[in-house]
């Protein structure tokens, strides 16, 4: 029986640190991981970078990743020659990720979360926009794609499809280091070390094939494989959403421990706001290919400044009868990304929409310290009747 075959009772994810998530003592095959000295937690998921990675180029004040004007339009189908209007999957996205933090990314299906992740990994190539990693532009002489991918890795939602069915567990983990020039013996040794760190004893699991391990164990293999190139940034795209709740809790705690152990930075994509609340230092909310709101996790999840974020929070299931809503806070489907509405893209579903929302597109503007929102209602002088009277102090 592997660690994911032993399921502790389900616990409330909303109470981290108070029995909210299964701790690492619930993982019988997991070596206890000791945090790097000098990396106290920022929040549930973060650690300030005080011990600089030798690969660091700009110090802790320089973002590890900066995305500027990222655009990806997919060709549509139909029309006279089989080509229709483009689908605006990602339509001008800007954000930064600081070293040592976890940036949670949320939004409805089709909002552009996973497409953004694929663009960051260069699985798909952006139509426009720049990706800057620790001060170096991706594609420049200073940072080619191979060097970038050694430092940025991704864990996907589908743990089975992510693994080659013809490779054993240890071969899958060793594959990346071998492709980047490590000897077979050294790559296998690294694979065994990482398998132990994610709670899978190499003698028991190393020779198995993907179909011979559970879903939770496969996802641990994927995490070990992502760590095999010693990356600085991990992109986790719905990495726990396919797991049952008890295994999900174990994997989340494993990710938290590994982050501290290796001094990692995470981009954590999820539809589950409770999980994002536990993992994230900052949260970015996406809607219809754009960023709707971004800021500190506590501010976003306790006092959102964009109506879409508030609606997402209100639509979360609650066990409290007093907190249940008679009507859905978010009605209807998002507009077609082929032809998004003018002005604010959310105005067709927003109960606070005014004339300015229908005619003028909002910028992603400061609404509180380190907190940005693309909403006229949150910005003084926007022309919205509910906008604040006094601008945010500089």
Automatic annotation (TrEMBL):
Residues 1-61, 314-342 are annotated as: Disordered. Its EC number is 7.4.2.10. Residues 65-313 form the ABC transporter domain. Keywords: ATP-binding, Cell inner membrane, Cell membrane, Hydrolase, Membrane, Nucleotide-binding, Repeat, Translocase, Transport. Part of the ABC transporter complex GsiABCD involved in glutathione import. Responsible for energy coupling to the transport system. One of its GO terms (cellular component) is plasma membrane. Residues 332-342 have a biased composition (Pro residues). The lineage of its organism: Bacteria, Pseudomonadati, Pseudomonadota, Alphaproteobacteria, Hyphomicrobiales. InterPro entries: AAA+_ATPase, ABC_transp_ATP-bind, ABC_transporter-like_ATP-bd, ABC_transporter-like_CS, Oligopep_ABC_C, P-loop_NTPase. The keyword Magnesium does not apply. GO terms for biological process: peptide transport; transmembrane transport. This is Glutathione import ATP-binding protein GsiA. CDD domains: ABC_NikE_OppD_transporters.
